[in-house]
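General statements about sequence and structure are easier to judge against a single worked case. For one protein, we set the task of working out the structure tokens from the amino acid sequence alone. The sequence in question and its structure tokens are set out directly beneath this paragraph.
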Amino acid sequence: MGRPAKIWKRRLDHFYYATINGHQEKLSLDYEEAKEMFHQMQATRKKTQRNRVSTTLGELCNTFLDLAKQTKEQKTYENQLGYLQSFCDHVGKGKRARDITGKHLDDWSLATGWGTSTKTAARSTVIACFNFGVERRILIENPLKGVKRGTYENKERILTAAEKEKIRNAARGNFKDFLFVLEQTGARPFSEIGTLTAAMIDWEQGSVTFEKHKNKKKQKTRVLYLPPSIQSLLRGLSERHPHGPLFRTRDGFPWSRASASQALRLIEKRAGISGITSYCFRHTYITDCLAKSMSPAIVAELVGNSVRTIMKYYNHLSQRKDTLRDAAKQAVDG
């Protein structure tokens, strides 16, 4: 049991001090005034401790979401809002946050009926919310500490050269250009290519630097390097659209997940290929780069990810049977 907090006088400056919550607090030269300040601090500390113990799940989630709304992308915020609302509906927003257990999280996950990756994203959001509570001293401790978030399923298929050719032939209008840029750059479809404007392009360097990007909070820059074929395409689009997004639907709106998905379903019918997503092109680009023996560090820089992420989530070489057969033969032949 620790020593009770008390007032003490420092010889060097003759001020009275007290150690509260492990921090030395400077009080006053006058003992009576110092004593009053000390008691006020103690009362505030006890009130704070009571608040941290009685914080409800709803209060914790609302505080977390208030910050997320200011600092996260709109889509990220909306996803987190949906997950936390669902969790609060299941458990009860009036339940004390300190009383939440891993079983609550598991029971909720099973009850949602979501897919594996969605469940993992949802559990990650709840765990992040509780970690935030401890960091911001809203909670004394995290009752979900050590609880696993789960794993993401990797369902992205890798397109063969023949499939990419069929998709190019089946694509129409503005969407054809959108897909071609995804194929040739491996960029993120909606947060990068979907937001690209003429003003963002550095024609002299042949690159685009994104001010807002996924890894900005990690103090990283995101530069997209444009091959000559893409620069030529972008110059034409920049002349057509000097202001606003370069890649637009027939109605003039930026391509979104919903509009792109609808266009891809038509391409699947025309090309006779199933399971195409906008992110297929990014996964295929990364896998093709690795299959060409490009350094994972170079690939990571090209697509705006860490080497660890490239190797963990985007390395689909197992789907490149011909490449692996050639590598096996080369390993033996020398």
Notes: The mean pLDDT is 86.
